[in-house]
Amino acid sequence: MARILAAMSGGVDSAVAAARAVEAGHDVVGVHLALSAKPGTLRTGSRGCCTVEDAHDARRAADLLGIPFYVWDFAERFTEDVIEDFVAEYAAGRTPNPCMRCNERIKFEALLEKALGLGFDAVCTGHYARLAVDADGRVELRRAVDADKDQSYVLASLTGDQLRHSMFPVGDTPKSEIRAEAQRRGLTVAEKPDSHDICFIPDGDTRRFLDSRIGPTGGALVDDETGEVLGTHGGVHGFTVGQRKGLGLRTPAADGRARYVLSVEPVSRTVRVGAAERLEVREIITDAPVWPGGRPEGGPAECVVQIRAHGGTAPAVVDEQGDALRLRLAEGVRGVAPGQVAVLYRPDAAAGDLVLGAARINSTR
């Protein structure tokens, strides 16, 4: 029997994860993380999370399971490490992933560190991912059984030590069965909508949120091929590579085709736009990687790379260059932006669900 701290968001996945940990015979304590300095009283459908309502739902689930329950205030840490980082990244012309940042800095750094300090053996969450142990006793991170709900991408920046102190009890089960199980257990969150979008922007208007934090920083919209100034904008933080809508262009391209954001240049405040084919990337350079699945040995190695949490994958060859990585893609990939994270999976079909490593994208070509 292990002492387990179950992170309970107030949703169905974390409630069932906690229930399974209890059923497995562990000594479980539930905790809800208060991440908002000004929590609302109600959710709006599937938008928003970490609200007062979510805390109440988590408490009701813990009461039904018969486990102790606490609310821990992580709002200040969340503001510094997730929200302020999110704003700074957009201001610098990069495209961050706040969910990955939250997992890395809040749930599996701050929370896990506190849990271990209090004598817990592991933190249990409702993430859709699986853990396995290889022949050498190393913990491996793998994709969930439910491919549509798989969250291995947003967990890929965790270290091997963090994974050794983690539990993902729902990763071996399709989401539909998790809801049915919650219903059988009498959990009132069985039919609660999943949260989506960014939790600290419950209305979904990212540009307005960034405008309120960064302010107007106008610049030019430029045709990348001709250099022609096509219009102006209110700030580079309102754009990301691959974006097509909301460009505010008054004149169509000469060939009548849609234009896309090709690059964002914060120093000159320039947003370059062009045809879709100019988005194609064949090479990616990253920052220092994290290797939860063990770094490839013996020089360049084949892998499968995923750029977005719910995006497709592409075959690639990865080569370490000092503290960075160079990824050469077997086929062109569109919409790759600095600040996104490249997650590498093992390429062979038998173990293609195994996460090898992850690194933030610095540049592309």
UniProtKB/TrEMBL annotation:
Function of the protein: Catalyzes the 2-thiolation of uridine at the wobble position (U34) of tRNA, leading to the formation of s(2)U34.
Listed CDD domains: MnmA_TRMU-like (cd01998)
Listed EC numbers: 2.8.1.13
Subcellular location: Cytoplasm
Site feature (Interaction with tRNA) residues: 127, 340
Coiled-coil stretches noted in the UniProt entry, renumbered to this chain: none
Domain tRNA-specific 2-thiouridylase MnmA-like central span(s) in chain numbering: 208-274
Residues annotated as catalytic: 102, 199
SUPFAM superfamilies: Adenine nucleotide alpha hydrolases-like (SSF52402)
Keyword Transcription: no
Binding site for ATP: 7-14, 33, 126
Name this polypeptide is given: tRNA-specific 2-thiouridylase MnmA
Pfam families, alphabetized: tRNA_Me_trans, tRNA_Me_trans_C, tRNA_Me_trans_M
Domain of life: Bacteria
Cysteine disulfide links: 102-199
Region (Interaction with tRNA): 149-151
Keywords of the record: ATP-binding, Cytoplasm, Disulfide bond, Nucleotide-binding, RNA-binding, Transferase, tRNA processing, tRNA-binding
Native source organism of the sequence: Actinoalloteichus hoggarensis
InterPro entries for the chain: MnmA-like (IPR004506), MnmA-like_C (IPR046885), MnmA-like_central (IPR046884), MnmA-like_central_sf (IPR023382), Rossmann-like_a/b/a_fold (IPR014729)
Keyword Cytoplasm assigned: yes
Biological process, per Gene Ontology: tRNA wobble position uridine thiolation
GO cellular component: cytoplasm
Catalytic function, reaction form: S-sulfanyl-L-cysteinyl-[protein] + uridine(34) in tRNA + AH2 + ATP = 2-thiouridine(34) in tRNA + L-cysteinyl-[protein] + A + AMP + diphosphate + H(+)
Ranges where the tRNA-specific 2-thiouridylase MnmA-like C-terminal domain occurs: 282-361
PANTHER family with a match to the protein in the record: MITOCHONDRIAL TRNA-SPECIFIC 2-THIOURIDYLASE 1 (PTHR11933:SF5), TRNA 5-METHYLAMINOMETHYL-2-THIOURIDYLATE -METHYLTRANSFERASE (PTHR11933)
A molecular-function term among this protein's GO annotations: tRNA-uridine 2-sulfurtransferase activity
Family recorded in the similarity comment: Belongs to the MnmA/TRMU family.
